[in-house]
Amino acid sequence: xxxxxxxxxxxxxxxxxxxxxxxxxxxxxxxxxxxxxxxxxxxxxxxxxxxxxxxxxxxxxxxxxxxxxxxxxxxxxxxxxxxxxxxxxxxxxxxxxxxxxxxxxxxxxxxxxxxxxxxxxxxxxxxxxxxxxxxxxxxxxxxxxxxxxxxxxxxxxxxxxxxxxxxxxxxxxxxxxxxxxxxxxxxxxxxxxxxxxxxxxxxxxxxxxxxxxxxxxxxxxxxxxxxxxxxxxxxxxxxxxxxxxxxxxxxxxxxxxxxxxxxxxxxxxxxxxxxxxxxxxxxxxxxxxxxxxxxxxxxxxxxxxxxxxxxxxxxxxxxxxxxxxxxxxxxxxxxxxxxxxxxxxxxxxxxxxxxxxxxxxxxxxxxxxxxxxxxxxxxxxxxxxxxxxxxxxxx
Length: 395
Hints:
There is one protein chain. By secondary structure, the chain is α+β, with helices and mostly antiparallel strands. Helices cover about 40% and strands about 20% of the residues. It has two domains: about 15-180 and about 215-320, 2-Layer Sandwich (BirA Bifunctional Protein, domain 2), CATH 3.30.930; about 330-390, Anticodon-binding domain (Rossmann fold). It has 13 helices and 16 strands. Helix 12 (about 340-350) links the parallel strand 13 (about 330-335) and strand 14.
């Protein structure tokens, strides 16, 4: 028997586990101050529930229950939340502001920043199509990463309806999907080859080839608006302008970049989309956007916008930036030469919130010092006729 974990999962040892829970506590605090209430969904659900979302069946961990039903470990959190809203929260006042922190399972390629079991945190703002809700989600994302101390954090925002508008004259869905895939991979050569092989008019071809370069700040929106006469595409730009102006009011636009080549999912997203990252890091830290049609698949039409962040990715970036907390000495070891005094002292310290471990192995003072030092404790307390405190590490 090999004493190792399967590919794509990991153990969190005490120091890492403590750091992870501290980050989760801070994330919860920030979500709460913005009015988002935490919910918890099941670890596994009926597979057909996730079929209504954006699931890739090849990446889902599926299994058959004892009653023959096809089940799956949760592939994301947005879909089960949409199910919950349609079934359990449909009569609650809207908009709903919901938050989550949970593990997610995907049978994906394992590499840096990509695991098969990973931890996600995020928010969903459900029941409003107002641009102010898009701006709130974006501002919250930036605030979250700034509060966490992430250096050089940036957020790209786009509008998928701009792409859909440009492609309205394209009748071939296969061609549309090939162009989308090239933009998704940032494959400029592939994009040029596909676009040039189409029968689209020359102005549309040029605009499609220009999409990866339509990136910057507010001035990009005016440039993009002038490059097309398509009503749908122009409405997308006007919507993005509204959102951007609200972000000016939030005071976060120095970290926001417009990226009109961002297409993400063709079917899932319906408006503003976002991705957060740190330059020179090979993966996104946060992803999301507006998805107004998902709840209708559960018989409950509600506009929605949200984001999800990868907790391990956040931890990895913080560590790479030298922001992982030092493993400070904490807690005390009590040597119970007098059990009654030892237990009373331990009780008092625990009530004060101090970590206390009582020796149960009848260690000598020297053995206890070595044991406590090895566990990075701050002090050894010998509870005898008197309390003797032996400092092992400085605060």
